Amino acid sequence: MESTDVQADLKHVLKSKDEIQNRIAELAAEIDRDYEGRDLLIVGVLKGAVMVMADLARALHSHVTMDWMAVSSYGSGTQSSGVVRILKDLDSDLMGKHVLIVEDIIDSGLTLSWLKTNLESRGTASVEICTAFRKPDAAKVAINVKYVGFDIPNEFVVGYGLDYAEKYRNLDFVGTLAPHVYE
Ligand code: XMP
Ligand code: MG
């Protein structure tokens, strides 16, 4: 049997469940205020954004519609290259819509920068970005992110949708991995 002690795989907790939930509630309140009287389409980027989409959507008081996209960035290993391929496109027509892209994490910013431009080219009224986490020290492109949960150090993190080899997405907190997991 594989170990079920997930905690033992983690070096430390970066953001606890409570910290994340409180911050998501604050972001939702801001979003409610900013989009008052307008229809909003929130677009989750699979798979990482599943947790933040679910929590953010439930914390919002306004009417929103939800859609999903899956993209993969070509690149060597864990490095994003900025060349993006759409694996699953949106079901919705974006013409005239106010769109909020919801992401788990922004690292280099290359994926999001490409995605924002791509969605804007479909005749949207506006496109903004909400991310649970951002690594400012890893930024390779300047990208305007309107809603940021937490700025975090440039370390690999897992949990709350973020994975290492598809594991740890289901954690309700975010932490760094113990070296024994990946060495
Ligand atoms: P870029 O560099 O284009 O890439 O902003 C963003 C995507 O890279 C993944 N990513 C991570 N995944 N822990 C993860 O589990 C991390 O610390 C991490 N940093 C980047 C993620 O898929 C994100 O959408
Ligand atoms: Mg991702």
Automatic annotation (TrEMBL):
Keywords: Cytoplasm, Glycosyltransferase, Magnesium, Metal-binding, Nucleotide-binding, Purine salvage, Transferase
Essential cofactor(s): Mg(2+)
Predominant cellular place of this UniProt entry's protein: cytoplasm
Signal peptide residues on this chain, from the entry's feature table: none
Entry's localization field: Cytoplasm
Enzyme Commission number, as recorded: 2.4.2.8
Family stated for the protein in its record: Belongs to the purine/pyrimidine phosphoribosyltransferase family.
UniProt protein name: Hypoxanthine phosphoribosyltransferase
